[in-house]
Specification:
The complex is a heterodimer of chains A (about 1200) and B (about 350). With about 1200 residues, chain A is an alpha/beta fold. Chain A is about 40% helix and about 15% strand. Chain A has 42 helices and 35 strands. In chain A, strand 19, helix 16 and strand 20 form a beta-alpha-beta unit. Classes of the chains: A alpha/beta (about 1200), B alpha/beta (about 350).
């Protein structure tokens, strides 16, 4: 029998590692945090890895989790061992099939990285709300609490399911376990074979549908037998606990790791016992073992098999000495008498008490509560808080722990300073940027240390909410015993700060233990760095007696030819000074790891990393720490003093990383947050920003049009206003005849700039003296920061240009409109956000947006700060996100309500016409609202109507007041990405188009699931690779435009801002003006294309000119004038598809991994493109449509 | 029937027409077509060290950009196990071409670093290359680099590669040496097995609309044979044991004949093949043969160098006097109104 390997991987991989090998079919759909499992399965299949029966599982990506569940059901009914991986709303979409699969007694395991559900807000983080929502489906439920368990239980669940014929949900905590990197022992194929014997597989196949042995399953049943049928499976459920227990015993015999249905840890004579499942059990175990060792009569009962709930086994596992049980649920059921686990325990105890079978002398006191929702950290201090509460005569029932509930006072007080000693564990924290490779280096470090047979290692990574310039905090633990601390580090022995600017914004040393080592990457030498630190940091270094080391890692990286990649350098520093391993041995291991990690990236990359390692030690210096803090610098406040009250009280706390401290009273009750908060967060993430050259500029507006973060603004104004301008404020005469006194300014909001460079790329104006100088050029920010801050302040005082005086029909004109979408957290150079910004400029003050879940809902709506904002009159886009799958329907609902209320407002206005004033009512109801001037006038009429209504009594007047705003033409937009529009929301989108109602749909098409990390969608083009299409997509992308055109009454446009911006603008305006459904497909370059994002617009242009993305408009209104509604706006392809495609890694990758396949696929793609263009040409050539 | 065979870099060739490095010699299918079309040998498209280095860096950058930053998208591409950013694909091309064809396959290398030149040359030899052509593509744009330093660079590269491999090594030269003859001799002394005259340098154009430098390459024309013809004729017979190859402007048998008469052991063609397809080599050879038969030439060996400086009646025709004559003839061709 093969020897078992130790390895260091995360929970997702640990689970998938088993699931892949014991299944034949995987039907999948990406959803955080479970996507990795599906991705690995697909990757392994593409690498032709085999399962334990020697075949390669068929991994199929579906259009949604509902689709995945259907495919799973079908594959199971056809006898294949089938699995899926999901979480959260994905699991919700599987519920209907889960009832079927269970009702038909079908063995299968769904592996779930348990995650919160979208309620008052979406959360990608972990808790048990999703799995608790499926506890009634008839699936058995098995919980893992650690990385090793997610590996082991994946097998135990499958083995038990096949034996019991009951399907299982195997779950572990999203992120906390799914993304925790830990050391574990891998099960061999032989282990798997032993636990999943062939006869069980054959029995499963024997129950499959077959024309050779036909039967019918899935009948419609009448009142006579349905009920009995539902009861007929009882004996199977009754057997599950004993089956699982037997499988666990068998597993223990095989591996030495013994699990039970309920595992008890702590004092055998415990009086206070916590009941908990998932990773929280690990924390509780660590805590109670520590406390029991100090004489406290405490324990923890870890629930592994949650459904069927084996009451007898629970009671048997509970110490007879138990006096108080504290039941911890990681979920929330509003309105329930208690959370599910609590109710189950109560029921078990009550039934035992009634039957006289209680193991305890008396009925224990039971109290329950909630903890850890949405990956809220669950710490030993909280465990102790619960145990302390259990000492009280009347413990607080239905409590919460980990938050401060100052409204309904559910929360328990606890001493946050408590922590078990955990001797022998080294705890290290690393503050880095996503872009600097800190996390990657730390994952590498964990592997290096974990590979040492002497050590155990654990890593957990905290990311922030932005996709650009995001901060990461890595929490690493190393020790000689298995590590159960599934919570963030609270006192670190080593802290590294990989970005110097964090010292001014983040309390980097807040979690430093006394005597901890502090490593700082700073652009200053050891004898100068002290003077550049803020006072609080200096004080902490002195008070906590921190040995302090400094390195200029960027200088070392530059010298080693590594650009700005400092990861290897900082990793080397860690090994050099942390003392975790012997220095030379560690450096040798780093080099070996480098050679392994970068093997695919070539010798060049490896050598540079080696050089970086070698240069590091000579540049790492210990700082002599003075006796007193000398700095005048304080941590910068997160928001300026003029920010609104809510931003000061709530948003600023989240921004400062102190959102955990916000009490319930400060948090909105229904998920409603104020608009426009990104403006208060000056992120300053780019060292380089554009600088405007007024003398070269031709005032075309292109730079501002394409700026993804709305940091380039233009205004024209009377030159007299310049009298108050700060020195150096730039302006130029406006480039328009007949306005000699009007000046033009293009202002860069440089603190909000991400440095993407799209503006420079798109600028057409070049200096006549030096062709390399444009009207806008990137330059170092630091020298101009202060002066430009003053310029921005002054620019803000200039009036926003009157919408009635601006020519909406030109790119240049549109850029005088105020963007009401600004400074989002999207990637630098994002290809989507310029479209949304344009939307906000054109229609922002009457815009209502339904936003599908995805990138746009994240950069558009992820706390703490959000980019949709309002104008000086207080008007702006009203934005909401429902789900991923229902966005079109959600937006249609907006329209239905708006139409209904417009109709109501008209009726009521007519009824009250005499009292309001017949003229005003007539003018308002008959008003044209096509132009901005007309809409502006309508705003005035509605305001007048409101004024008059205020003086009118009676219910009709109040009714009309509540809906009168609907008399201003509302612009309803349904926006999302291709994952929504082409896949999961396709059915809804199609239906909404078919209704003929006046909604506008904007699909920002990146041709891949961007938000979840680059999985294939039906928009992914032929020959591109993506996750789930690692061997290149073999079928063409769906032509959504043609599908929509087929309705005949839908306005359809395909646009690409980087090719013909004027066409984009035209399409947006036509779509909005069209009185029925409109669909705009907008090419959006994306980081998932594998391009230098500064080239995004060039790629858009090539996409159009290669024929990959022909620009078109189909306007049914044109038909009325007898013309062809189909207009092809882009010329015949004049570059080959290859010349476009091979600039992008998504295409190029295949040409490197499998050149023959790449050649064949790109040829196929070229043919598709050519054929498609010919078809369009034919359509465009037809007259009259 | 004239004997068309020749020897280049010690490699016996059926005739002197060789397909030189171009996009046509990037795939085994095309190399096979060239062989079928009649080429006596092929020089594969160059392996550019700088490009490989750039691609490695770009791959590293593009696969890591945006990763490990946001919890939902910790990466954007599937993990692949066999992404080839190194010379593997090129080496595979050598192996495949050798296996698929009978003709000599000459690898072409454009290096940057010493390790690049020697390392890749060694790998090319291991992959089965019949010989290596060094494509020293170097524009001394720095104003403090002297002519001597430029010359040393060529010699150093040659020395390094010669010390790393046993197969024949040719070096493709720039025409821009102050003393082409002396330079050729230095290279011969350093062990060059062949000289290829001349490299067509990248000469950028300007896009006036965009006011950008446009890096494009135009195909050669027959008029371009003059410079290589001159130097082949001068060098022929003066460099012991060194093969001479002509490249540039070969569009038909006429240029082949001229180059052979000047002293070329092999005549390389690119633009004409790109323009007319791989069969052109065969047609050139047929025309060459017919021309030789018509005029009673027995062999290439007989014809080779017959118009070289050593063998013409008036050796000074290749020197300054000839230049004056050209100027005069120019006036004659295009009389101006006085």
């Amino acid at each position: 029998m093969a020897e078992r390997e130790m390895t260091t991987i995360d929970g997702n991989e640990a689970c998938a590692h088993v699931a892949y090998r014991i299944n034949e079919v995987c039907a999948i759909y990406p959803i955080t945090p479970s996507s990795t499992m599906a991705e690995l399965a697909d990757q392994w299949a593409s690498e032709e890895r085999r399962n334990i029966w020697g075949n390669i599982p068929d991994v199929m990506e579906m259009q949604s989790e509902a689709g995945a569940a259907g495919a799973v059901h079908g594959a199971l009914q056809s006898g294949a061992l089938t699995t899926t991986f999901t979480a959260s709303q994905g699991l919700m979409l599987m519920i209907p099939n889960m009832y079927k699969i269970a009702g038909e007694l079908t063995p299968a395991v769904f592996h779930v990285a348990a995650r919160a559900l979208a309620a008052q807000g979406l959360s990608i983080f972990g808790d048990h709300q999703d799995v608790m929502a499926v506890r009634s489906t008839g699936f058995a439920m098995l919980a893992s609490g650690s990385v090793q368990e997610s590996h082991d239980m994946a097998l135990i669940a499958q083995a038990a399911s096949l034996r019991a014929r009951v399907p299982f949900v195997h779950f572990f905590d999203g992120f906390r376990t799914s993304h925790e990197v830990g050391k574990l022992e891998l099960l061999t194929d032989d282990d798997l074979r032993q636990m999943v014997p062939d006869e069980l597989v054959l029995a499963h196949r024997g129950r499959a549908l077959s024309p050779e042995n036909p039967f019918i399953r899935g009948t419609a049943q009448n009142p006579d037998v349905y009920f009995q049928g539902r009861e007929a499976s009882n004996s199977f459920y009754a057997a599950v606990p004993s089956v699982v227990a037997a499988v666990m015993e068998e597993f223990a015999g095989l591996t030495g790791r013994r699990y039970r249905l309920f595992d008890y840890y702590g004092d055998p004579q415990a009086e206070r016992v916590i009941v908990v499942m998932g990773s929280g059990a690990e924390v509780a175990r660590e805590t109670v073992e520590y406390l029991a060792g100090r004489g406290e009569a405490v324990g923890v009962l870890q629930v592994r098999l949650y459904r069927p709930f084996a009451a007898a086994d629970f009671l048997a596992a509970m110490p007879a000495s138990t006096r108080t049980l504290a039941i911890l649920d990681r979920t929330k059921e509003p309105g329930a008498p208690g959370e599910p686990l609590y109710l189950d325990v109560i029921s078990a105890l009550a039934e035992a008490a009634a039957a006289g079978t209680l193991p305890t002398a008396t009925m224990p006191r039971v109290f329950g509560g909630r903890y850890g929702l949405s990956s809220k950290d669950f710490t030993p201090a909280m465990v102790k808080g619960v145990l302390d509460e259990a000492k009280k005569e009347q413990p607080k029932n239905h409590f919460t722990v980990g938050i401060v509930d100052d409204v309904t006072h559910t929360s328990l007080d606890y001493d946050p300073q408590f922590r078990p000693a955990n001797e022998g564990v080294v705890r290290a924290m690393f503050f880095g940027l996503g872009a600097d490779g800190t996390v990657g280096a730390n994952k590498n470090t964990i592997k290096i240390i974990g590979d040492d047979p002497e050590f155990y290692a654990q890593g957990y990574f905290v990311y922030d909410s932005k996709k650009s310039g995001s901060q990461t905090v890595s929490h690493l633990r190393f020790g000689r015993e298995p590590i159960r601390s599934s919570y963030l580090i609270e006192k670190a022995d080593f802290i590294a700060c990989h970005q110097f600017n964090f010292v001014n914004t983040t309390d980097v040393l807040g979690r430093a233990a006394e005597g901890a080592t502090f490593l700082l990457n700073a652009p200053y030498p050891a004898d100068e760095v002290w003077d550049h630190l803020p006072r609080p940091m200096q004080q902490q270094i002195i008070e906590k007696k921190l040995p302090f080391y400094v390195i200029d890692a960027y200088a070392v990286a530059r010298e080693a030819g590594m650009g700005t990649r400092t990861n290897t350098i900082m990793q080397t520093c860690f090994f050099a000074i942390s003392g975790v391993m012997e220095r030379d041995a560690a450096i040798d291991k780093i080099k070996k790891a480098i050679a392994k990690t970068y093997k695919l990236k070539g010798d060049e990359v490896i050598q540079k990393n080696f050089e970086a390692v070698d240069r590091t030690l000579a540049n790492l210096h210990r700082v002599t720490v003075p006796g007193v803090a000398s700095s005048d610098l304080e941590l910068a406040p997160p928001v300026p003093a003029q920010a609104p009250d809510f931003v000061q009280r709530v948003t600023a706390m989240m921004m400062a990383g102190r959102g955990d401290d916000l009490p319930v009273s400060q948090v909105p009750v229904d998920g409603t947050y104020p608009s426009g908060t990104t403006k208060w967060e000056k992120r300053n993430i780019s060292l380089f920003v554009p600088i405007w050259e007024p003398d070269i500029c031709i005032q075309c507006g292109n730079c501002s049009f394409v700026c993804p973060h709305a940091v380039i603004r233009s205004k024209f104004y009377d030159q007299d206003r310049l009298a108050d301008a700060p020195e150096g404020f730039r302006s130029a005469p406006i480039d328009a005849r007949g306005f000699p006194d009007i000046r033009y300014t293009l202002q860069i909001y440089l603190e909000d700039c991400t440095g993407c460079g799209l503006c420079v790329e798109v600028c057409p104006a070049k200096s006549k003296e030096a062709a390399g100088v444009k009207a806008i050029n990137m330059a170092s920010k630091e020298p101009v920061l202060e002066s430009e801050r003053a310029n921005v302040d002054f620019f803000e005082t200039l009036p926003v240009n009157d919408r009635g005086r601006v020519d909406f029909s030109t790119v240049r004109g549109s850029q005088f409109l105020e963007p009401l979408f600004e400074f989002s957290g999207a990637c630098a150079g994002c290809g989507e956000t310029p479209y949304l910004k344009l939307l906000s400029q054109l229609f922002g003050d009457r815009l209502q947006i339904a936003n599908a879940t995805g990138c746009s809902s994240i950069y558009g709506g992820n706390l703490p700060t959000t980019p949709w904002t309002k104008n000086a009159e207080g008007r702006g886009p009203a934005w909401s996100n429902s789900l991923f799958e229902d966005n079109a329907e959600f937006g249609l609902g907006f329209r239905l309500a708006a139409d209904k209320h417009e109709d109501l407002a008209q009726t009521l206005a007519r009824q009250l016409a005499d009292r309001i004033g017949p003229d005003l009512v007539d003018e308002t109801l008959l008003a044209q609202q096509r132009t901005e001037v007309q809409i502006h006038l309508q705003h005035g009429r509605v305001a007048a109507m409101k004024e008059r209504l205020a003086g009118i009594e009676g219910p009709e007047a109040r009714q009309l007041e509540s809906v009168v705003d609907h008399l201003i033409r509302r612009s309803i937009w349904i926006v999302g990405g291709d994952g929504w529009a082409y896949d999961i929301g396709s059915g809804g989108l199609d239906h909404v188009l078919s209704t003929g109602r006046n909604v506008n749909i904007l699909v920002m098409d990146t041709e891949v699931y961007s938000n979840t990390g680059g999985q294939m969608s039906k928009s992914t083009p032929t020959a591109a690779i993506a996750k789930f299409a690692a061997a290149g997509k073999k079928v063409g992308k769906k032509d959504l435009a043609l599908q929509a055109i087929s309705y005949g009454n839908v306005y359809v446009a395909r646009v690409a801002m980087g090719a013909i911006p004027q066409q984009t603008l035209l399409a947006f305006r036509e779509a909005e003006a069209f009185p029925g459904p409109s669909l705009i497909l907008a090419y959006s370059h994306c980081i998932a294309h594998g391009i230098n994002m500064a080239n995004g617009l060039n790629q858009q242009n090539l996409a159009v000119h290669s024929g990959h993305w022909p620009l078109l408009r189909f306007n049914p209104m044109v038909r009325e004038s007898g013309e062809n509604p189909f207009v092809l706006d882009s010329p015949r392809p004049r570059v080959s598809l290859k010349d476009y495609a091979y600039n992008e890694l998504r295409y190029r990758m295949l040409s490197r991994t499998n050149p023959d396949a790449a050649d064949a696929l790109i040829a196929q793609a070229q043919e598709q493109v050519t054929r498609k263009y010919e078809l369009y040409e034919e359509m465009a050539a037809r007259m009259g449509g | 029937m004239a004997d068309l065979s020749t020897t280049y870099l010690g490699l016996p060739l059926k005739h002197p027409v060789v397909a030189s490095a171009s996009p046509l010699t990037e795939s085994v299918e095309n190399v096979k077509r060239l062989e079928d079309g009649g080429a006596a040998a092929v020089v594969l498209a160059s392996l550019f060290e700088e490009q490989l280095r750039h691609e490695q860096q770009a791959y590293d950058h593009l696969t890591t950009a945006g990763t490990e930053s946001f919890a939902e998208s910790l990466s954007y591409f599937p993990e692949v196990e066999d992404y080839h950013v190194g010379p593997d694909r090129y080496l595979e091309l050598i192996r495949a071409c050798r296996a698929a064809t009978e003709i000599p396959v000459i690898a072409s290398l454009n290096g940057v670093t010493d390790e690049g030149w020697t390392g890749y040359a060694r790998q090319m030899q291991e992959a089965g290359a019949s010989a290596i052509e060094l494509n020293v593509f170097y524009i001394p744009a720095a104003l403090d680099v002297s002519g001597r330093e430029v010359e040393d660079r060529y010699v150093n590269v040659l020395n390094a590669v010669k010390s790393a491999v046993d197969i024949p090594v040719a070096i493709k030269l720039s025409p821009f040496f102050s003393a082409m003859g002396a330079m050729a001799r230095r290279l011969a002394d350093a062990g060059a097995n062949g000289l290829v005259l001349f490299n067509r340098f990248y000469q950028p154009d300007f896009d006036l609309e965009k006011r950008e430098v446009r890096p494009n390459l135009t195909l050669s024309t027959p008029v371009e044979i003059r410079l290589p013809l001159l130097w082949l004729a001068v060098l022929y017979g003066r460099l012991d044991g060194v093969s001479l190859a002509a490249t540039r402007g070969v569009h038909g048998a006429e240029e082949v004949i001229k180059y052979v008469m000047a002293g070329a052991d092999a005549v390389m063609t690119t633009s004409a093949l790109l323009k007319n397809g791989p069969d052109l080599a065969g047609r050139m050879v047929a025309e060459l043969e017919a021309w030789m038969d018509q005029r009673g030439y027995e062999s290439i060996a007989q014809m080779k160098g017959s118009m070289s400086q050593l063998k013409v009646q008036d050796p000074s025709a290749f020197e300054r006097a000839n230049y004056i004559k050209v100027l005069e003839s120019y006036r004659l061709d295009y009389p101006t109104v006085v």
